[in-house]
UniProtKB/TrEMBL annotation:
Source species of the chain: Candidatus Protofrankia californiensis
Name of the protein this chain belongs to: Aminoglycoside phosphotransferase
Lineage: Bacteria, Bacillati, Actinomycetota, Actinomycetes, Frankiales
Superkingdom of origin: Bacteria
Amino acid sequence: MIEESRVWVVDWGWPAQGAGWVDAAFMVIRLVGAGHPPQLAEQWAAGLACWAGVTDDGLSAFASHVAGLWSVRAMQAGTRAAQNRAAMARRYAIWRLSGPAADRTAWSGR
C-alpha cells in the first residue's frame, strides 16, 4: 500500500502492530538458528536504526514469548520445520535468560 510520502508493507501471514525492533528480533532468532552465536546476532541487529528502541527486558520477554509460542505450534504441527523453529527460538531465549544477556537484564528495569 502506498501513500504520498510512505510505503506500508504488511505481513499478511501475521498482521500485527508492534515495536519497530520486532522484525529485527525475529531475524536474530533466525541467525541463531543458522548457527550464529546469539551475541553476534544481536550485534548485527544493533547496527539497525530500529534496534535503538529495544530494551534488554523487552527483548528477553520477546524471546521467551516466541520460544513458548513456537514450541506449542511445534507440538501441534509435529513437522520437522516447526520443531526446528521452536528449537532455535528456545536456544535464543535460554541465552537471553541465562547467558551474558541475563547479567544485563536481571531486574535492571531497562
